[in-house]
What does this fold into?
Amino acid sequence: MGRRRDIKERCEECWFRHELCVCALIPQRELNTRLLLLMHHTEWASTTNTGRFALRALPNSEVRFRGLPEERVNLDDLRNSPGQLLLLYPTPDAQPLTTEFIQKLKKPVTLIVPDGTWRQAAKVFRRERVLKEQTIPVSLPPDAVESDYLLRRMDKPGALCTLEAIAHAMGILEGEDIKQDLLELFNLVNLRTLATRSPDWIEAMKEWAKKAGRSPGKTWASVAELREKYLPKGYRP
Ligand SMILES: [Zn+2]
It folds into this structure.
């Protein structure tokens, strides 16, 4: 789902239709923690991929594509990486990412995030020895929120989409304000995609508002609030 269509009507950078372009609203946060997104190549063309927005918001970030039939992803340089490499991936022995844990790490930290399905992520972890040898697998603490992402069914309950997961991880590594900035970006992308995509987007927004605990019992007011906050003025889906 979610391939790019009607390309002329879309912003070349964010792929939203011009009237919903989010580019001017993407925060820019220069962080000490470097983000390395290991993206399955089929993700890049998908409009439901949220990892690419993390790349836009965080200048200290990089994407490498994996899963290409003719080219293995090259991670050899990670062997000489300064500081500590963390792999955000819930292996059975993954360390919960907490402030106590990160205090002990050699800085700077590079956070490696597989972007794609869990199955694809498991494959890359098995295949790339450098990840096994050089990284510490970490997982978000169990109290990290349930996903608010409505556009793509998660293959595990409570699983977060890529931008949400990065927001929570960077929140622990770099501070609460980073998390808030990235979650706001996520909300914006989520809502604007929903507004263009879902045939019954009002229902979906109501559900989201309910789930997010916005003004309980006043779901319609919450929907209005969400529209006001995240959709351009006067926009009618
Ligand atoms: Zn744009």
Residues 176-197 form the longest helix (22 residues). Residues 92 and 137 are 9 Å apart (CA to CA). The pocket of zinc ion is lined by residues 11, 13-14, 16, 21-23 (CB under 6 Å). The two ends are 19 Å apart (CA to CA).
